[in-house]
Structures are given as structure tokens and as C-alpha cells.
Amino acid sequence: MIDTFKVKILKGVGVAIIVILIFVIGFGVGHIGKSTQKVSAPKTKKVAEGTELTQDYIRKFLIAYYTKKDLEENRSRYKPFMTDGLYTSVVNMENEPVNQTYKGYVVDQAFKSADIFIDEKNHTAIATINYTNTLLKNKGDYKDAQKNVASKNTLRLTFTKDGKKFKVNNMSYLIVTDSANVTDTTNSYGTLESASSSGSNTSASTGTSGSGNATSPTSTDSLNSEE
């Protein structure tokens, strides 16, 4: 004869064991899932802007330097990217009478694009910048103005560490010359030469150079940090 009391006890024990097993298995799976999630999603380290020499950082400097309503207007924007010595040199260049002559006539300059090549070992970069501006016959008078005049500059930038941040310490304007014959010392895209002040269409302070533009000559081919 079957002992119903013992049967009930055995059923109760069996149910309890099953519940315990389900709890243990569920806890184990959840713990493994959390561990996997932690391993697969490591925290990304944020790099402060300017602590590394990158295309994005150099492009931000070029945008600040080449975008301006008028001469001098963008000083507060490009200053954070320069050493104090270079900033002083640029301001002095902009204040020269030959550059002040064009103030109010070459306006609405806007950065468009740049091809940037970085030499990380020597902390230098060469950038070819495309930009536009507007040429006025009379200050403040946009009648008969030449708008969206396209220009191009090639710059060699030298950087130095100022604390933890890279800053521009030297800017040299370059002329890209075509080369018919490729040699060991001349690349197929031409040679890079420092822009001379005589016979060149270059303005180190205003950035208004290129064909068809009103430009101001420069007394030097590069801007250096003043000691």
C-alpha cells in the first residue's frame, strides 16, 4: 500500500530542489553576462585637444587663421593656436602699412578646404589651403564687388610643445612649382620653394594671395616666433 504522506514529502523535496537549481542557473548566467559586458566594453580614453598633432587640430587652426571678416578681426580665434612669439610676429606683420592699405577692401575671407601632410617625427606639417574672399572697390560698398574670389596658399607649419599642447611656432609660405623632369630630389608633383617677397603674389599677414586678387607684398617669406 502506497504511503501518501511520504509521497507528498518526496514531491515537496523535488520541487524545492528544482527551484534551487533554477535560481542557481539563472544567477550564474546573469553573472557571466555582466562579466562579458564589462570585458567587451572597455572605457575609451579621452585625448585633450592639441596634445597630439592631428589633421583635425591643424584644420581647426587653419579655419581660425583663414576665416575673417576683415584684417585683424580673427586674432582672438587664431591666438590660442600660436606661441606668444609667433602671435606677436603675425600681429606686427598685419600692422605694417603695406597690409593696412588693403584693410576694408579684401573682406569676407572664408576657409574652404585643406590638404594636410603631417611629419610627426619633426612636428611639422605642410598644408595647401583653398579659400575665398570678396574684393571691394570702395570700403563698405558691395556694388561691383568681386565675390567668392578663389585663392590657394601652401604653408609649412612648425609646432612646439607649450606645456602639454602643441602650438604653431613658425609659418612659412611656399610656392609649388611644376617640374617637367622627375629626379631623385624632385617629386612628381613639383618642388616646394620658400616664397620670396619680390615678384610673388603672397601676403603672409592677410592671406590674400592667388591669381586675380588684390594682394600685398611681404618683407619676409616666413613668420617666426620672436624670442
Automatic annotation (TrEMBL):
Q: Where is this region: Disordered?
A: 191-227
Q: Where is the composition biased (Low complexity)?
A: 194-220
Keywords recorded for this protein, A-Z:
Membrane, Transmembrane, Transmembrane helix
List residues traversing the bilayer: 12-33
Q: Does the keyword Membrane apply?
A: yes
Query: This chain belongs to which protein, by name?
Result: Parvulin-like peptidyl-prolyl isomerase
Origin organism is Streptococcus salivarius
Source lineage: Bacteria, Bacillati, Bacillota, Bacilli, Lactobacillales
